[in-house]
Amino acid sequence: MAAYSRSPLLLLLFSSVFLCGFGSVLGLKAASGPAEPPNPPVLRPADPPAKDAPAAAAAGASQPRRATGWKLSEEEACREDLTRLCPKHTWTNNLAVLECLQDRREESEIAPDCNHLLWNYKLNLTTDPKFESVATEVCKSTIAEIKECNEEERGRGYLVSCLVDHRGNISEYQCNQYITKMTSIIFSDFRLICGFMDKCKDDINTLHCGSINVGHKDVHSQGEVIACLEKALVREAEQQDGVRPIKEECQKAILRVAELSSDDFHLDRHLYFSCRDDRERFCQNTQAGEGKVYKCLFNHKFEEAMSEKCRDALTTRQKLISQDYRVSYSLAKACKLDLRKQRCSLDTNLPRAREARLSYLLLCLEAAVHRGRPVSGECQGEMLDYRRMLMEDFSLSPEIVLHCRTEIEAHCSGLHRKGRTLHCLMRIGRGDRSTAVDSVCQSALQTLIQSADPGADYRIDRALNEACESVIQTACKHIRNGDPMILSCLMEHLYTEKMVEDCEHRLLELQYFISRDWKLDPILFKKCQGDAARLCHTHGWNETSELMPPGAVFSCLYRHAYRTEEQGRRVKPDEQLSRDCKVEVQRILHQRALDVKLDPELQRRCMTDLGKWCSEKTDAGQELECLQDHLEDLVSACRDVVGNLTELESEDIQIDALLIRACEPVIQAHCHDVADNQIDTGDLMECLVQNKHQKEMNDKCAVGVTHFQLIQMKDFRFSYKFKMACKEDVLRLCPNIKKKVDVVICLSTTVRNDTLQDAREQRVSLKCRKQLRVEELEMSEDIRLEPELYDPCKSDISRLCPNVAFGNAQMIECLKEQKKQLSQRCHQRIFRLQEVEMSDPELDYQLMRVCKQMIKRFCTDADARNVLQCLKQNKNSELMDPKCKQMITKRQITQNTDYRLNPVLRKACRADIPKFCQSVLNKASEDSELEGQVIACLKLKYADQRLSPDCEDQIRVILQESALDYRLDPQLQMHCSDEISRLCAEEAAAQEQTGQVEECLKVNLLKIKQEGCKKEVLNMLKESKADIFVDPVLHTACALDLKHHCAAITPGRGRQMSCLMEALQDKRVRLQPECKKRLQDRIDMWSYAAKVAPAEGFSDLAVQVMTSPSKNYILFMIALSVCVLFLVGLLCGRITKRVTRELKDR
Question: From start to end residue, where is composition biased (Pro residues) (predicted)?
Fold first, then answer.
């Protein structure tokens, strides 16, 4: 300190309180008689100026003056002003009079002669060599305590300079009072500051800051000179190229003056006079000293009652503080030791270097706090005040004023109070390209946010604090006030009922910039700083690296957070994130999912695509969904980042905070177990899909889950569990296939082929086959999840099923029911879908949903592929659910339209179909139904008893089923629909079909007009002759008789029917009346059928004979006829013409 005090530089600074020959500069001659030093503790008046003082001063002084005991109050020049302006008790003390006249109100003029007298008095007082000796006597103990001052050389003015510099450490009352009084005298006029005039003379004249001549201006105006220089200094920092740059030595002098006036606002004469009334209004009870009045006024700067003049003076003072923190007495004092401890002021030889900037001090100390190093509470409190100050008034940051001037003038003018301008710039900064701020302005904003660090304490951001106060009181009241978790809590309640619009905007504006530098989230930094240094090679809190910029650190962290063994080589423990860090990374990802602008990389790469495809998608979460919907249309850079984010969501769907929030009821009811897991591997989304149709599911959740399912179709990597289970299989069996639906088809085809060919070993791994089944089941729920089906059927959907919902397979069911009206392409796809579903009923979503309980009741032991067969067998059980029964009937109707939709029949009749029905197959197309023609063909062959046993069994089942429900016979329904409506409308309308429609058609056979229908009814009659089970009405009527008279007869091939016919003809057998009546009716019908439809060939004739009640008689007559013909031929052959022997012997 001694060396520093002795340096010539000190002569430029405000700490030197001597004029140093200043009189010659002013054109004045120093008084020959020294001023009389005051005697402590009561300060005595000094000797009067000498006779060779300036004429004006001499004229103003009363003559003759006493050599000692001279008083200002006795001088004629000041007597009137003194009487008018100063209390009487001050008249006996020259210093009190001086202070009174100096601090008078600006509008109170004093006579020019008095003004000059005061000037000469202060001039003589400050140049008197006895001044130091008085200081030595008054401050004796203080000088001994302050080592730097005790070592100063005496007689050169350095001692008083040192005492002024250390006046904050002076505890001795008299010394403190003395130094304070002397300082206030010198501060009253810039010309009294030793060296200041020499260094700033040119700048004062150049900037027109005032006059340097005594008498030209009132002493009050001399405070304006320093104020003018200060304003020019801060204005220079806010300009790109200073038009009139202030010389460096004058800049240092200005800042030193500001620094030494930092403890008592009286010493800043311009601010004192500007804010005197405001001080009384706002800070009346605040004691002067230690910068307390300054701080009080700063806190009320934006009050409505604050005068504009005072506000401008305070702003200038704050701008000086932003250039040199030492201009703030309280901050410099509170943080002095911490700055030294944290090595924040490395270059003490350059006091105005960058280390003096407020932003540097804040960044350095904030880095220490974030790293857990000790920083005193007093210093942290001061830092908090000044960080809040930076956020409140953008003009305190010269970089903002310089680089954001255009944006402020265009969009944010008139919003300078309470941080509104800054938030306005932040709002523009996070906007689209059309309103985006310049990159240099953006960088300045980012730097300011880092300096203020509002992420550590939301109260720093006054605009945010005021906007979100009500939300914090309701949603975040459990968190300690000022805790960094408040911001996280607010983000968790974004877009909820508790959030208010103004808070939402302010929060997103701030989070936009916090998200671009991972260090600005204090919780993330605290938990992850070790991981970031180890894995991402980061530096200190306030240091950046070109190789790893702040925005790239978080990307590095989340890549390591979601690395697994399956994604390549085994991950070493030292390459994994700590558990605490991973939790924080997940928290940030959840927050970023709320708004694409919170993801810097996503916004940067997708700015063009957002404008092109998603300009109208402005609601929460819509922009990301829009990008996912247009994934194929995005530019490659955007597509990559959206794809990576979607892949990440598939692993941890909780990242999508909006979806999780919407699905909270379902998660609590059905998925709370998987939701509570620390690590989600796709289980939660799978659970939501499985419970998509539960009563707790709301529209928002259902739409969100379905949307994610649709996005997953675009790339198999978007289904985490599927990707992890099948990645190797895809690379081996389905290379170069990316779309999930194509991958599923490829793998499913491979599995099906291996199964059909009875391969020794399945090519698709077991774990992949299990997950493949899950994916197939999920896809069956919504037609949109199967693009190959959805795309050809879009027009049919809008035409035939406009009001049907997509979920729950309702749309697919609608298309199935309207199958005959579908376009050709859609019809083909639906047919293929039904073919797959019939061979694998688990993929029939509607069947499995409607019959879920019945499957548990009847088919728990059945193979998955035989579920429909099991349900059909139990269809008529009394325990069968009516809705399930109705669904089974629908599937039976579908199966009977084409043998290919009945895998059991197809397998049993694989040899019979080409043998007997090739002509039908030749006419058929590959992807359209045969409308039951093949089954009708097989029915006829069944009646002819020509089918193989397996095929015969299956056809018998079909005949029995269709005999009970006419709808199961597509040929009958197609040819007889009009006749049924005309003749059997009542029977057809019955809810329960038990063969009444078929019986109605048989009874009304003679009334049927359409030949096609008549033929079908005749075929029914023909089929019933082959097996009584095919005729349910007859079978029911004759059940007891079959049991009594034909129990030993094996069913099939018409044997039991023949038994009943014989019993009918046998007069010894008494049949049940109903059975007898029904049998007689059948005989009549068969007789009519024989007349109407005679045998078309020998085979038909043989069948008619064999099934005739008079079969034995007919066969006897045929045999008798053959014998008679043989005998006639044998006996009558000789009756022909005789031949002579000669002719025979030739």
Answer: 35-48
Q: What is the model's pLDDT at position 46? A: 35
Of how many residues is the chain composed? 1146
Contacts of 238 (CB under 8 A, 6+ apart): 398, 401, 402
Q: Which of 858, 854, 786, 855 is nearest to 826 (CA)?
A: 786
Checking if the pLDDT of 1124 tops 70, the result is yes
Both tokens assigned to 1053: 């091939």
Residues whose CB is less than 8 angstroms from the CB of residue 240 and which lie 6 or more positions away in sequence, other chains included: 402
- Per-residue DSSP letters for 308-342? HHHHHHHHHHHHHHHH-GGGSHHHHHHTHHHHHHT
Q: Are 1031 and 959 in contact (CB under 8 A)?
A: no
Burial 839-858 (b: 16+ CB within 10 A, else e): bbbbbbbbbbebbeebbeeb
Residues 6 or more apart whose CB falls under 8 angstroms from that of 372 comprise 526
**Phi, psi angles (nearest 5°) of residue 555:** -60, -40
The mean pLDDT of 1000-1012, rounded to a whole number, is 88
Helices (H), 86-218: 94-102, 112-127, 130-138, 140-145, 147-150, 158-165, 173-187, 196-206
479 pLDDT tier (thresholds 50, 70, 90): very high
Eight-class DSSP state of 668: I
β-bridge partners, 214: 217
Q: What is the mean pLDDT of residues 422-434?
A: 79
Predicted pLDDT of residue 67: 37
State pLDDT tens for residues 1033-1046: 888 889 898 888 88
Cis peptide leading into 37, omega within 30 of 0?
Answer: no
What digits encode the pLDDT tens for the residues 42-90?
A: 333 333 333 333 333 333 333 333 334 677 777 787 878 788 888 887 7
- State the burial class of residue 406 (Cβ atoms within 10 Å of its Cβ: 0-12, 13-18, 19+): exposed
Structure tokens that stand for 444 in this block: 């300045």
Task: Single out the residue of 847, 787, 839 nearest to residue 816, CA to CA.
Answer: 847
Give the C-alpha separation, 235 to 231, whole Å: 6
CA 341 to chain CA mean position, Å: 42
* Token pair recorded at residue 676: 């509570």
Q: 494 by DSSP, 3-state: which?
A: coil
Nearest to 120 by CA among 156, 172, 75: 75
Instruction: Give me the chain's average pLDDT, please.
Output: 80
Q: What Cα–Cα distance (Å) separates residue 950 from each residue in 668, 863, 908, 1054, 1115?
A: 52, 20, 5, 17, 30
